[in-house]
Design brief:
The chain contains 16 helices and three strands. By secondary structure, the chain is mainly α. It has three domains: about 1-50, Ubiquitin-like (UB roll), CATH 3.10.20; about 65-165, Up-down Bundle (Receptor-associated Protein), CATH 1.20.81; about 170-410, Type II secretion system (T2SS), domain F (Receptor-associated Protein, Up-down Bundle), CATH 1.20.81. The protein has a three-stranded antiparallel beta sheet.
């Protein structure tokens, strides 16, 4: 069965569009005509893909697009370059052409496309809005405010400063997560090397002793034999589990639960919460400084966070602000927000200096994040050494125990 899209006319001349399912185009045409319609066009369309195929299509499109890191780098680079050129008095159109030059890179092509939009009479913010894969909604909004107020160079400088800080925060978190990830893969690789290259020879040697093997040695040899015989099934099972996890994370409800669990981790979760709210506070301070209303600023700040849960939470807060509720009341029950940061908001709303208090709150969140980052870096190396030592010690003990037993018997 195929799905056909059709356009037809009634007897009174009214245009009708719809879809019909039929085995062939002739039967689809007959089914539409039975409704008393005069068909003007009939076209087959592909049936809706399954969830699995849809997920694979999204992943393939994501792989074909530029990486997120490259997009952020282009956004940051353009804002910093334009802030310098516009402050020096060079017009926007000439600045874009000068930055593009004769280059053939993707960044140069982006600059020429933005310049072509200006030449066609569009606003610069509109040209940025047509590149959603590179420029965030916050960037577009700040540029739009700068164009309307005639302070585009100042707005670009303020935006570039914020993007630099945001990039530093992301790199700080990625650096902290890199060390445990490298350690994990090295440990797994070392274990696989011992299992497939060393243990087969050692197992033949240990079994030739004709003595009762201790329990740790029996477990180690049994594990080695199992992996050597069943490694294709184990590999297939791990690949299936990873694919199932990726498919489950495509569901918003499950993804939000996973994010909230990550926020509750003892050290990494605390640091992640502080960095996310640091981003949000700085974005709100920048947006309010541009003269944007609080509800619109909260809605725009939702785009700067990498957490789906916080993004949805801020969108709900923006709706509450539009209904007249205070910001501190809407965020009072938010468990991811550090209590003292909430007090900064309360003081800002009470005194009427919300933008200034948001800046102080961002500075305090940065101080907390730096302290936790230093603590994690101090703990990462000894913990890594401890894990490797325990792994090697367990392997050496399992191999040495039967040899020591044999020596004692002799």
């Amino acid at each position: 069965m195929a799905v056909f899209s059709y356009r037809a006319h009634r007897l009174d001349g009214a245009c009708v569009a719809g879809e019909v399912t039929a085995p062939s185009a002739q039967e689809a045409l007959a089914a539409v005509r039975e409704q008393g319609l005069f068909v003007s066009s009939l076209q087959a369309r592909e049936a809706a893909p399954s969830r699995f195929r849809a997920a694979l299509a999204r992943w393939s499109r994501a792989a074909a697009r530029p990486t997120l890191g490259r997009q952020r780098a282009q956004e940051l680079l353009l804002c910093r370059q334009l802030a310098v050129l516009l402050r020096s008095g060079l017009p926007l159109y000439e600045s874009l052409l000068a930055l593009a030059g004769r280059g053939t890179s993707a960044y140069a092509a982006l600059l020429r496309e933005l310049a072509a939009g200006l030449a066609a009479g569009r606003m610069f913010s509109s040209a940025l809005r047509e590149q959603p894969r590179v420029f965030s909604r916050l960037t577009v909004e700040i540029v739009r405010v700068g164009e309307r107020s005639g302070q585009l160079p100042e707005m670009m400088a303020r935006l570039s400063d914020w993007l630099v800080q945001a990039q530093r925060n992301r790199e700080r978190l990625q650096t902290l997560l890199l060390y445990p990830a490298v350690l994990f893969f090295l440990t797994v690789g070392f274990g696989l090397f011992l299992t497939f290259a060393v243990l087969p020879t050692l197992s033949a040697l240990l079994l030739s002793f004709q003595v009762a093997l201790p329990l740790p040695t029996q477990l180690l040899l049994a594990w080695s034999a199992f992996l050597q015989e069943e490694w294709p099934r184990v590999l297939l099972l791990l690949a299936g589990a990873a694919l199932a996890a990726l498919l489950l994370l495509q569901r918003p409800s499950i993804a939000e639960r996973v994010e909230r669990l990550r926020f509750r981790l003892p050290l990494f979760g605390t640091l992640r919460r502080e960095l996310e709210w640091l981003q949000i506070y700085r974005a709100l301070a920048v947006l309010l400084g541009c003269g944007i209303s609080l509800d619109a600023a909260v809605l725009q700040a939702a785009d700067v966070t990498g957490s789906r849960y916080l993004r949805r939470r801020l969108q709900t807060v923006a709706v509450g602000i539009q209904q007249g509720l205070p910001l501190t009341e809407l965020l009072a029950g938010e468990t991811t927000l550090p209590p003292l940061l909430l007090e900064f908001l309360r003081a800002g709303e009470t005194s009427g200096c919300l933008q200034e208090m948001l800046g102080h709150g961002a500075a305090y969140a940065e101080m907390l994040a730096e302290n936790h980052a230093a603590r994690l870096q101090a703990l990462a190396e000894p913990v890594a050494y401890l894990i490797v030592f325990l792994f090697v010690a367990a392997f050496v003990a399992a191999v040495s125990l039967p040899i020591l037993d044999m020596m004692l018997v002799v």
